[in-house]
Amino acid sequence: MEKQVLLEVNNLKKHFFLGKGEILKAVDGITFKIYKGETFGIVGESGCGKSTAGRTIIGLYDRTEGEVLFKGKNVHQLTEKEKFAFRRQMQMIFQDPYASLNPRSTVREIISEPMEVHGIYKNKKEQLERVYQLLEDVGLNRDHANRYPHEFSGGQRQRIGIARALALDPEFIIADEPISALDVSVQAQVVNLLKRLQKEKGLTYLFIAHDLSMVKQISDRIGVMYLGHLVELTASSQLYKNPLHPYTQALLSAIPIPDPDIEDKRERIILKGELPSPVNPPSGCVFRTRCQHAMDVCARQKPSWIEVDSNHYVACHLYDRKLTGVHNASQATVLK
Ligand code: SF4
């Protein structure tokens, strides 16, 4: 069966104008598609623009250039009426469950608020039943409905945030670092919950994170972002088996492997220097100031987006066949 495209992001840019002619290029031309029912992960260091990308896709920020199409409709050109309907279909889970829940509202009020704004239930009893159902869906129970956010642990608060995101029965959820603020022991539980809900409700996710090991657990495909650009995109398994971009290789080499024999023999790639400022990004390839393979051409020319193997894309001159003669990913591995 042919995969159905739910979201299409074309050359999306989000620049912030800081005054005195300075421009912060938080997102600088990213392109990808998300298919119905999949989880698309975006990963990168903090400051790479991944959260800004998420917020621009859902329309919290206007875009500077490019387009976001949800079911073929341009998210940034919706009428007020269309926006209202769109908000029911796309929801967001935020990083910080402490800050994203109103401390003065009960859990019942927090979860039922979107239903009231959208006038879903005329009958209060039905609405309350729906709140109870959502609490059970996320592993809480009806006794939690009359409590306040401060009475819960971090993991439970994130479950409340997920219940609120589900209140309008959306098709698509942007999860912006939903587990980063949680204890490691709780992270896997929340990831498993998201996976279960996806199966039960047929959800599609954009999962944003800085931790590649966790993104792997949930994503079907992953896009790696660096300084506002996508540098690599492929299936999750392929990215881990055969990472091509020097930045992806460095990120992966930092993940510990539980087998001490393999771990001892592994070479860790230490990235030199800090992430450059998106106000003044390097010329050519934005990664060149930290890349151990940088060549002269990397400072002069922005690398193209190349499909090195089937559905495996990378932006790096090492894989430009005109420069290196490399024609596929297996040949490309010799360059690592
Ligand atoms: Fe490194 Fe050049 Fe590839 Fe950029 S284009 S990642 S600087 S080799």
- What sequence of helices (H) and strands (E) makes up the elements? EEEHEEHEHHHEHEHEEHHHHEEHH
Strand content: 15-25%
Uncertain residue segments:
none
Level-2 CATH architecture of the largest domain? 3-Layer(aba) Sandwich
Q: How many alpha or pi helices? A: 13
Residues in helix, %: 25-40%
Total domain units:
2
The name of the CATH superfamily of the largest domain reads: P-loop containing nucleotide triphosphate hydrolases
| Spatial arrangement of strands, main beta sheet | 6-7-8-3-9-10-12-11
- Gyration radius (Cα, Å) is 21 Å
Describe this structure in words.
By secondary structure, the chain is of the alpha/beta class. Helices cover 34% and strands 23% of the residues. It has 2 domains: 5-241, P-loop containing nucleotide triphosphate hydrolases (Rossmann fold, 3-Layer(aba) Sandwich); 244-336, no CATH class. The strands form 2 sheets. An 8-stranded mixed β-sheet has the order 6-7-8-3-9-10-12-11, with helices on both faces. It has a 4-stranded antiparallel β-sheet with strand order 2-1-4-5. β7, α6 (184-201) and β8 (204-209) form a beta-alpha-beta unit. The protein is globular and about 70 Å long. The two termini are 36 Å apart. Iron/sulfur cluster (SF4) binds next to loops. Residues 7-252 form the ABC transporter domain.
In short:
The protein is 34% helix and 23% strand. The chain is of the alpha/beta class.
List the helices and strands and how they pair.
Elements (H helix, E strand, L loop, with lengths): L4 E15 L2 E14 L3 E5 L6 H8 L7 E6 L2 E2 L5 H10 E4 L13 H11 L6 H14 L16 H13 L5 E5 L7 H18 L2 E6 L2 H7 L2 E6 L2 E7 H6 L4 H8 L6 H6 L30 H5 L5 E4 L2 E3 L6 H4 L4 H4 L4
Parallel strand pairs: 3-8, 3-9, 6-7, 7-8
Antiparallel strand pairs: 1-2, 1-4, 4-5, 9-10, 10-12, 11-12
